[in-house]
Amino acid sequence: MKITSAEVFVGGPGKNYVTLKIMTDQGIYGLGDATLNNRETLPAKYLQDYLIPCLIGKDPRNSEDIWNFFYRGAYFRRGPIAMTAIGAIDMALWDIKGKIAGLPVHQLFGGKSREGAMVYAHTTGGDIEQLLDSIAHHQEQGYQAVRVQCGIPGMPKDGYGVAGDGEDANHFITQYGELPKEEIWDTDKYLRFMPTVFEKIRERFGNDLKVLHDVHHRLLPREAAAFAKELEQYNLYWLEDPTPAEDQSALKLIRQHSTIPIAIGEVFNSLWDCKQMIQDELIDFIRISATYAGGITHTKRIVDLAHIHNVRTGFHGAPSHSPISMAAQGHLNAWAPNFGIQEYLVLGTPECDALFPSDHHYKNGMFHISDAPGLGVDFDENQAQRYSYERRYHPVVRLQDGTMWNY
Ligand code: KDG
Ligand code: MG
């Protein structure tokens, strides 16, 4: 069996999905996702200019060797662009493998450990009342777990994770401006206000609701340690990215002062970015994604290491991941003995479903993976003709005096 060609498509309904299609001489094809949010053309170009020419003529069943050919074979290896591009190839090869076997991909690495995978949604409010309404609305839709982000009094209301009036909670992730929007951040106001939000949530919803919160890399280690200690009483499911992810030693200070579960890793691209924090058991949930961390082969390797160190999965699932990588993660979630939770924002607009037909579905707070062979997601090239690339940026963050801060 040989790979005969591969093509990259960029575009989608309101998003710049980067979709790879690998064709074989036996008519079977595989699909992968290389959507590096707000830098989408770069993995597309990396695939087209460097990786696809080497793929032609290779046996697609040798996914491990092909992964290492691209990883070890690149002298300047790792980084988000390369790992996202390699990841798309890897997903497509697992898709082909499953289709050859006539089996859904999770069967190829051990079958199902559970029927449905618990997911969490994003809830948001410009103030506490709006946030409580948003949580109640998601509970009605069956969610048992919600991420909560709230506007902070005295700070502009459109900060990270907070939808403006009448905006969808998912809007902020992908619908950014044509040039970076500037947000203002005030650590003291945030630290004073957020505990009151969790107090109100527990008063209104009790202790069963799983409550998650994303600090989005904004705090210094000492601030994060004090915040984590103060929040312990509200029994959070996790505190995400309390400090910038590249400083792994910062987590030690948080661990010394608090038992709050820590989730980190959505910006990581390889095992080497998180190996130390997993082995030292400085985190409770690993947030990598199949999209940004080299596809199924490499993500599974991270999950296996995490398993022996009591770290559970909590894969990144912002709406910038296409249904292809959400399916790749869905198969890992169905199998992983150390599954924790999956971030999932219902992507299912009619346009998105038409572009990526599949039988995977959300029901009552759970994601259910279908038994279709391979990844179980298709790609309609006729629909794809409707879309093209539109440049978008993440916002940037400044302190009130103008100093640049972490987005
Ligand atoms: O591309 C960046 C977004 O995916 C990120 O800001 C979303 O932090 C995020 C999350 O937890 O979903
Ligand atoms: Mg996050």
Furnish the topology, listing elements before pairings:
Blueprint: E1 3-10, E2 18-24, E3 29-33, H1 41-55, H2 63-72, H3 80-101, H4 105-108, E4 117-125, H5 128-140, E5 145-150, H6 171-174, E6 182-185, H7 187-205, E7 210-214, H8 221-231, E8 238-240, H9 250-257, E9 262-264, H10 271-279, E10 285-286, H11 295-308, E11 312-313, H12 323-335, E12 342-343, H13 350-355, E13 361-363, E14 366-368, H14 381-384, E15 396-399, E16 404-405
Parallel strand pairs: 4-5, 4-12, 5-7, 6-15, 7-8, 8-9, 9-10, 10-11
Antiparallel strand pairs: 1-2, 2-3, 4-14, 13-14, 15-16
Helix pairs in contact: 1-3, 2-3, 3-11, 8-9, 10-11
Which key phrases capture this entry?
single chain; 407 residues; alpha/beta; Enolase-like, domain 1; TIM Barrel; 3-stranded antiparallel beta sheet; 16 strands; 37% helix; globular; binds 2-keto-3-deoxygluconate; binds magnesium ion
Q: Care to describe what's here?
A:
Helices cover 37% and strands 17% of the residues. By secondary structure, it is of the alpha/beta class. The protein folds into two domains: 3-104, Enolase-like, domain 1 (2-Layer Sandwich), CATH 3.30.390; 109-378, TIM Barrel, CATH 3.20.20.120. The strands form three sheets. Strands 4, 5, 7, 8, 9, 10, 11, 12, 13 and 14 form a ten-stranded mixed sheet that branches. The N and C termini lie far apart (46 Å). 2-keto-3-deoxygluconate (KDG) binds next to loops.
